[in-house]
Write a structure and sequence with these properties.
mainly alpha, MetI-like fold, about 80% helix, MetI-like_sf, Tungstate transport system permease protein, ABC_perm_TupB-like, MetI-like, transmembrane
């Protein structure tokens, strides 16, 4: 076990020097989480918008399901993805287990409900303002969805950032389906867990610092986009 002061100094040195292992882990983390966020938005935004503007039997049950799925336990998601991608599973022939693709799938499943639920609320609030205008123009549902998503783009970007923040900090699911394999599936969260358990605090602290910077950056972007959305609304 390293002395904390020494470990912190080494961590700063690793970050400042752009250590190759550190850069590789951070790059993979960003690639996996950004890919998962993009897929979640492609699925979640249209679905959330459709539910927001449509009234149908069982809608309240769907809303309850959306909110419940926001709290999906990561390890359960990881287990389910593992069972599907393992050799004995229905998708085992694809050979995706213990690859970045499997990690992207797990993160996508985790954050899609977040995107759906939050975007549904944003779009529903906006639709209440435009409903009469849409009826007068006789727009189809997809035309309404397109118009609402574009008009709410700044608020929906904050939804995407919220999903990314959830994905990049996730550890349980990606550990199960990725295996934390060095130079292949090791991301920031799993590397921090491993290096801490080994007592190698320098790399763990360095990755923690990078993760904190990313988290602060995401929060700053969210706040900036919220302010932009408010200015846009009153423009």
């Amino acid at each position: 076990m390293q002395d904390f002061g020494e470990a912190f100094g080494l961590a700063l040195s690793l970050v400042a020097s752009g250590d190759a292992d550190l850069v590789e882990i951070v790059a993979l983390s960003l690639r996996v989480s950004l890919s998962a966020t993009g897929l979640a938005c492609l699925i979640g935004l249209p679905v959330g918008a459709l539910v927001a503007i449509t009234r149908f039997p069982g809608r309240n049950a769907v809303l309850i399901l959306f909110n419940a799925l926001m709290g999906l336990p990561p390890v359960v998601v990881g287990l389910l993805v593992y069972l599907h991608l393992s050799r004995a599973g229905p998708l085992g022939f694809l050979g995706l287990l213990y690859t970045p693709t499997a990690m992207i799938i797990a993160q996508t499943i985790l954050i899609t409900p977040i995107v759906m639920a939050l975007s549904r609320q944003v779009i529903e609030d906006l639709h209440a303002e435009y409903a009469d205008q849409f009826r007068s123009l006789v727009l189809s549902r997809w035309q309404q969805v397109s118009a609402l998503i574009w008009d709410a783009r700044f608020s929906l970007l904050t939804v995407g950032l919220a999903g990314f923040g959830r994905a990049v900090a996730e550890v349980g699911a990606v550990m199960i389906v990725g295996g934390n394999i060095d130079h292949l599936t090791r991301v920031m969260t799993t590397a921090i867990a491993l290096e801490t358990s080994k007592g190698d605090l320098a790399l763990a602290l360095a990755l923690g610092l990078v993760l904190m910077v990313i988290a602060l950056g995401v929060n700053a972007l969210v706040q900036s986009l919220r302010m932009t959305a408010v200015r846009h609304a009153y423009a």
